[in-house]
Amino acid sequence: MMGKMEALLVLAEAVAEGRITAGEFATVCLPLYKHYPYRYPSEEHYQAATDLFYVAHDYDSAGLDMPDLLNGDQVRQKAADIARRMRILLQ
């Protein structure tokens, strides 16, 4: 059982590849993570999902240009890194 983490992986890859915007990613990722109905198979799975949540959480949706917030390019890069980790975990 993969723990249904595939939904998070698909979401991470979609924003990383530019198929959805960082704003769309954040809109879907935050509630998906908060209301995730499955147990994570391992601590590594949980950490990857949590890291993805924080990428969405820290997205600068208002364009405030604050140093602790992420712009769209940073969201795409971080999501790509997390997607690679998730893909390895799901093998």
Helix-strand blueprint:
Elements: H1 6-16, H2 22-34, H3 43-57, H4 72-89
Helix pairs in contact: 1-2, 1-4, 2-3, 3-4
State mean pLDDT (0 to 100 scale). Answer: 92
Quaternary structure state of the chains depicted: single chain
* CATH domain class name: Mainly Alpha
Task: Give the number of DSSP strands.
Answer: 0
The CATH superfamily is known as: Colicin D
Termini separation comes to: 11 Å
CATH level 3 topology? Four Helix Bundle (Hemerythrin (Met), subunit A)
Characterize the biggest β-sheet. none
Specify the overall morphology.
globular
Architecture overview:
- The chain has 91 residues and is mainly α.
- The protein has one domain (6-89): Four Helix Bundle (Hemerythrin (Met), subunit A), CATH 1.20.120.
- It is 63% helix and 0% strand.
- The protein has 4 helices and no strands.
- Helix 1 packs antiparallel against helix 4.
- It is globular.
- The relative contact order is 0.23.
- The model has no long low-confidence stretch (mean pLDDT 92).
